[in-house]
Design goal:
Radius of gyration: 31 Å
Number of strands: 0
Structural class: mainly alpha
Helix content: 55-70%
Number of domains: 1
Order of helices and strands: HHHH
């Protein structure tokens, strides 16, 4: 059922004043119920986020600070390449951003 605000208003105006007040009370009740549900969901999400953060912190206590620093700097990761990377690494690297490049 898709009613426009104008249709709802027109129908509401056909009711006696006492019934209009009942409709308003019902709308306020629905709004309160929705606000409670949203608040409860947000609290639940916040608790989950806090638990996840605590778990991440406890997981990282076993990791060395150097590794954590490299990971935060984006220096830890994986790439797909051939098995001969140890001998062909210069062909794979991009030196275009290097300062003082003569190219």
């Amino acid at each position: 059922m898709n009613l426009s605000p104008q249709e709802i208003t027109a129908q509401l105006l056909t009711l006696p004043e006492q019934e209009q007040q009942k409709v308003m009370d019902f709308v306020v009740s629905l709004q309160s119920e929705l606000a409670r549900k949203l608040s409860k969901n947000n609290k639940h999400k916040n608790k989950l986020t806090a638990l996840e953060t605590q778990q991440e912190i406890s997981d990282k206590k076993d990791i060395s600070p150097i590794y954590q620093a490299f990971e935060q700097a984006g220096l830890i990761g994986c790439i797909e390449t051939d098995e001969q990377l140890s001998t062909t690494y210069k062909e794979k690297l991009d030196f275009s951003f290097k300062h003082g490049s003569t190219e």
